[in-house]
Amino acid sequence: MSLLEYHSKRAQLIADDRALRIDVVNGERFSEKSRQADVILRRIREEEARSIWAVEHDEVPHPFPGMEFLTGKDIILKTQLFNIITKMPKGALLHVHLDLTVNSTTLLALALQHPSIHICATAQVTPASIKSVNIEFRPLPPGFVPQCISLCLPTYKPGQWIPLRRAREQFDAALGGTEGFDRWVASCLSINPGEAYVTHNNNIRIWDKFRSAARLTGTLVYFAPIWRAYIRQFFEDTITDGVSYIEARINFSPKFMIGPDGEHNVPHKEWLSMFLDVLGEIHGDLRAQGRDDEFVGAKIIYTVIRNCEPEELEWYLNDCIEMKKLFPDIIAGFDLVGDENILRPLKDYLPQLLSFSTLQSSQGLPEHHHIPFIFHAGETLGDGSMADDNLYDALLLGTKRIGHGFSLVKHPKLMSICRERGVALEVCPISNEILRLTASMPMHPLPILINHGVPVALSSDDPSLFQNMGLSFDFFQVLAASDITGLLTLGHIARDSIQYSMLTLEEKARATFKWEERWERFVDEIVKFDGAQRN
Amino acid sequence: MSLLEYHSKRAQLIADDRALRIDVVNGERFSEKSRQADVILRRIREEEARSIWAVEHDEVPHPFPGMEFLTGKDIILKTQLFNIITKMPKGALLHVHLDLTVNSTTLLALALQHPSIHICATAQVTPASIKSVNIEFRPLPPGFVPQCISLCLPTYKPGQWIPLRRAREQFDAALGGTEGFDRWVASCLSINPGEAYVTHNNNIRIWDKFRSAARLTGTLVYFAPIWRAYIRQFFEDTITDGVSYIEARINFSPKFMIGPDGEHNVPHKEWLSMFLDVLGEIHGDLRAQGRDDEFVGAKIIYTVIRNCEPEELEWYLNDCIEMKKLFPDIIAGFDLVGDENILRPLKDYLPQLLSFSTLQSSQGLPEHHHIPFIFHAGETLGDGSMADDNLYDALLLGTKRIGHGFSLVKHPKLMSICRERGVALEVCPISNEILRLTASMPMHPLPILINHGVPVALSSDDPSLFQNMGLSFDFFQVLAASDITGLLTLGHIARDSIQYSMLTLEEKARATFKWEERWERFVDEIVKFDGAQRN
């Protein structure tokens, strides 16, 4: 074979190999300017791989593109590539747990606005104990009289409640005073690099930290007076990052939220009513700022923790239907959440889940308003484990998308079903990495999915725990870790996220139109800026 | 849908999903007794997952099945599952670098038998310096007079050569004396957990340690008086572990081995001649012990480091042909080796590699004796990097197998080519994990390959560096990390490794027949032992 023949065969083989990629299948979708922007970003990526990622940084030995997010974040923030990605229109955020979305510093600030919020600890907080002490929050009624004024006094007894503000003001100067307090509480509400990459460095262990941080966050978020401000903060941050539509999962497992009086008495319909109010406010604000086109709306996926008894699930399914009737435009789906490796598999709930559709009809919901399943499945390293097997049930039960689907790449038949039926995977790169399903982005199976033509949407999952607010960080990690995926690939993924949402056909068309307009402005800016820099 | 209908659909979906697996495609191959043994091993695996892997062990916090090999090895050795796997007939070992096969303690013992072997260090060895000092070995002529008698004396000057034996005898008691010396040298010749999982914990960094340990080992192995004993040791250990045929890669990049006189004067044909001698001795020994059926033979894959200039490669290709003429039954293939991420891609050598076949014909090798390519390719986390792209060239150049092919799972077209043409991947699970392509076995892409019907053979790669002697450890890690793969899967893989070898058709038939006899004895023993235990 001549070299010429060889190279022609080689080009054909590579083309065949990549024929299922979204950026090949829809190759004609974007403008010439998009293509120019893609080339510019590839150049910047290559330059920064050398100038930023191949050199040593203080406190970050041996960095590399797509490295452990919590360690590399400070470097990411310095790159031009990230700066550009923050401006990209991201489309829909389809996998995010509402109660884990606002960064812990902001959440603490919100909590400090409410004198009723108290804190307790499992021991006196000292320089020796601070790393092992566990804390709890609780809103207490106005008449409560604290027995101690500081967590740091030798007289502090485990479990004594202290008003949050006072605990902060009285925090030991040796521990950094109020600033030390803020750092400490924030670290309890999120996962830090030492935990993810040293002390809890595997998928089994890291869930311990996940659970404790999530539980702690929940006690603040599910306090009704914080709930509104919390949702508002989440919307604002997410929209600023270029997300134009949100499907947030709300964990409805607690049947009541805590009211201003400290009692568990706020029912689900109130939560949703507040959600709807805030959504209205956000729309109003954006209109007033002339930013209508940045946001088309938000919906809720009703979720229940998968530790409930199958019989108990019936209550939730009925409740979900009731909420759908009250908020038909808000309830977008139903899901079960929590660590699939140890909690109940979908299989345990088959009788309930198989009759959900009949139940909806019997309760008067017309078929076109039925609540679809949007199941978590395969968020695991297991091979044939019950978490891995959830993928079979999710698809057999007709899931519209798959939350994570990390282990899907092991399943050739399921991959082709997803491809043929257009069942998108909600892939959460940074979440997967911090929960130690993958050690870094270059190890992540996303390129396998993309090359096999399995539809994907990128998501952030639990940004308050992972510190990956918005979608810029996840898009960045994906872009940085590949030599094939480029800005156009991200563009295709972002645009299609709207198609994979639970919006109506008309809403999708409108949202896509708006997205495309923003995309054109975005790539135009990249090309202009690059031209200006080179002149 | 009724529950009954659902479960029937579910079973069908799982069957469809697994239809390409080797243990499904060849489901009828093994006896009923094999199936019983498979069930027994699944039971033991499940029991030990609870009784051994789910409990804490001294110095191994939070173990799990398929965990980091160097940390978990002591636990593996305690399991019944491993004990059984050591007795399994493994078939062919198809990917192993001959100069990195014998454990470092044994290699040191071999070196100590030769008074001409000297050692030097980059600094005086003290408790403070021992972790950072680098060493070298060299055979020196009998007349050499050392300037110092111990590496540990303050008078030791960097680079001074000391006879190895004397350096050992005079090793500082504070450093553990002779035992301390043995431990220290062994640690320089292999990769330890601290390096793999802490100091060099990523695929870029760990190659630094790999290179230094491999270079050091090479200076001993490529000393002709050690070579013979070294090969013999490798054969003996490997056969004892149940391997019945070996295709070892020899790095022929040094054009001469070092002779007893300390000169670089032993040509390639001498190396092969010694190899052939030892092979004959081994066959003789086994015959004498009545163990003929345990070993059918060994061949060599001629390898060159991929840093040589394309023009220089021509010398090696010619040399390889010459060796093939001298040792037609020994030379089984040609390959290029070394870190694909930084050394030359196959693409750089296209003119030479494309004309290799013509070159062989012109030098009188009949076509059926032509030397096949058996290329390393895709041993990388890159996505579209030059190492990843090597997969295209390896297949276009007609490689008979692929060394590693770690990134193949990203390539749908290449996966189907491998499946259709029967191009097996030489998968090296423990090597991949220690070189940080995967953080642990549950993260390894092997199940993706198996479920997609891509042929695989399990290999050990560099057992002296990774301490995974034989094939038992690699088979064990694969078995422990799955709930689907069982003893039958391992049996299919072991049996097929003979089919994917470069043996002739008749040799393959004979080797397979012998393997099957041993397999039956093996499963028979498992079933008998289990029956005896239960009565």
Overview of this protein structure:
Two copies of one chain form a homodimer. Chain A is an alpha/beta fold. The first copy, chain A, contains 23 helices and 13 strands. Among the domains of chain A are: 93-103 and 214-473, Alpha-Beta Barrel (TIM Barrel), CATH 3.20.20; 105-189, no CATH class. In chain A, helix 22 runs antiparallel to helix 23. The mean pLDDT of chain A is 96. Chain A is globular. The longest helix of chain A is centred in the last third of the chain and has 30 residues, at 505-534. In chain A, strands 1-5-8-9 form a four-stranded parallel β-sheet. The first copy, chain A, has a four-stranded parallel β-sheet with strand order 10-11-12-13. A three-stranded antiparallel β-sheet of chain A has the order 3-2-4. In chain A, strand 8 (297-305), helix 13 (310-326) and strand 9 form a beta-alpha-beta unit. The relative contact order of chain A is 0.14. Chains A and B meet through helix 1, helix 10, helix 14, helix 16 and helix 17 of A and helix 1, helix 10, helix 14, helix 16 and helix 17 of B.
